[in-house]
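BUG-562 | component: ligand-complex export | severity: low

The export step for flavin-adenine dinucleotide jobs runs without errors, but we want the raw record kept on the ticket for reference. Input record follows.
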Amino acid sequence: MAKSKTARRSKRAREADAAVAVLAHRLAASAAPGGREHETAKEMIAALGTGAPSVPGVVKIADRSWQNYGKNVEQRVRTTYMISNGVTNDANVAIPAIQWAVRDVGTTPGGCVAAGMHWSFSRAGCNATATIDTTGTGKWLTFSGDQLADPTEVHALFHVQAGTRIEQLLAYVEGQGRALIAMGGNCGQTIAGAVSTGTHGGFLDRPGFPDAVRALWIVGEGGALHWIEPTTRPVASNSFAAALSAGGVTVHHDNSLFQHALGSLGAFGVIASLVIETVPAYRVKLSRAPTDFDSEIDAALFDHIYKGPAFGGGTPIDLQVVVNPFRMTRSGDKWNGPGAVTIAQLTEVPLATPIAVSDPGPTLNDGDIGTLLATFSHALPGAIPGLIDLLVPVLYGKRQATGPLSVAYPLSITHAPTLSMEIGVDSGAARQAFGILIDFMRSCSPPLPGVFSVRQTLRSRATLSIAHWPRTYTFELALLGGVGGTETTLASLLDRLVHEGIAFRLHLGMLVGALANGSPWLTRERMDAMYGAQVITDWHQARRTISPNRVFTNALLGAVGL
Ligand SMILES: Cc1cc2nc3c(=O)[nH]c(=O)nc-3n(C[C@H](O)[C@H](O)[C@H](O)COP(=O)(O)OP(=O)(O)OC[C@H]3O[C@@H](n4cnc5c(N)ncnc54)[C@H](O)[C@@H]3O)c2cc1C
């Protein structure tokens, strides 16, 4: 009798837990294309009848289908652990839930990896054996002054759970009269996902997401807990560090471990929460408009953009130049193109400037044009320039917006599946890389229907970041999904860059090129060449500190020797 009561109670507890988790994941996934939230809800409810674990905050789903935003990666995942804060929405529930999931995976061959919103175009967030999904955790966990090494930072540091989406993080931060130091061009990712792939924007004098992180709370192998922060500007006060230690958390004050763990594609463990540094609120004006590409723009972009005003308006703090290669022509060693670029720039405006948005909105559905382009790209390559001309104003239309970062960069989802690869180079090689990209996209076969955008970012502390050079220029190829051969064509582009002697790094949350047999272009040898063999060895050494058996892994990490 007592046993059946317990069984009934645990079933009820599981049901309640799943209901909360469904809600949490629904909220998190509401931005996901293709109705993924409905599928998740159905699968989580179905998982109830399968003897799912009675640990609060975990729903375990067997044989789940996994697909990313770009729809170029599809995979059946043997076990998915959906983590949440349980019925009480208590962040203390999520940590034991993650620990339980990690222990449940144990040393199963194939291991596991954590997943965010599946916005990576690479296989970064996917493991066919087990995936630990933290998108159901999105709380802001406040500090008290005595918990901080520097109590004056109590309003500047935001401790948030891993699954907090950038959109949510902006709301937390801006709601307190603060601002993110910088951000990327969109806000649908989770903070753990964005940090783990080195997500960045085009801020001319500020690095990307990993560099705003001041501490990481990670669940490592065997469910062991690790608080990792650098020795420079530590977060935790002595008493807080002692309390963490007393609670079984290993506190690491270690610059090198911190830098290797940042942007590590989930290889060190499952991030439960992170501490993000913010700055006092500021307001920006975003202006996006098409223009001609000429020698003046060329000089501004490659020679002196960060030294003074350019493109009208004040000195930009953030800049993205979207290039339509099919409108460019070469004259000598320079490129020209009437109406070939769309420039989006952020300038800082006084804090009292009212929020205003003038956005004519799309006139055509990018999904319709995208489908046409994908269909015709192989059969009628001559139709590509005309169709790209139609698509660019839909995806990068004229826009003006004034307000905090959340107004400048609202959530923006495409209907057409898109795929991106991003290449980072030193500023000195940027003009040459720019020319190679235009030339390649105009002439490659099979064709690459799409555009590319040029941004700049400062060097990141994160070892595996694309932002390796003091001023790194990034070239993001934004391509249409559903076009056969795209990843192998991209591999030829990478070969050409190597051939031309251009040192570059890749954004590991985006495409990394594929060989004809489907294996990634990027290999351990190429990682060694890109990052330096000693750097990769040091990264491995640091990872062994908290993940000696490489439990946190997947096909991508394996293929590139991480
Ligand atoms: C529309 C769109 C716009 C984009 N814009 C930009 C941009 O402006 N700049 C830019 O740099 N990139 C951009 N990206 C790429 C994107 O920011 C990254 O791929 C990002 O990692 C995706 O975050 P996610 O939450 O979807 O994580 P996922 O793709 O699900 O996972 C990414 C990585 O994070 C790891 N991870 C996730 N959660 C955890 C956790 N709790 N613990 C440990 N590891 C974890 C995963 O294992 C994986 O390695 C864009 C992508 C899309 C689809």
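Assignee comment: Attached the raw record above. The chain has 16 helices and 21 strands.
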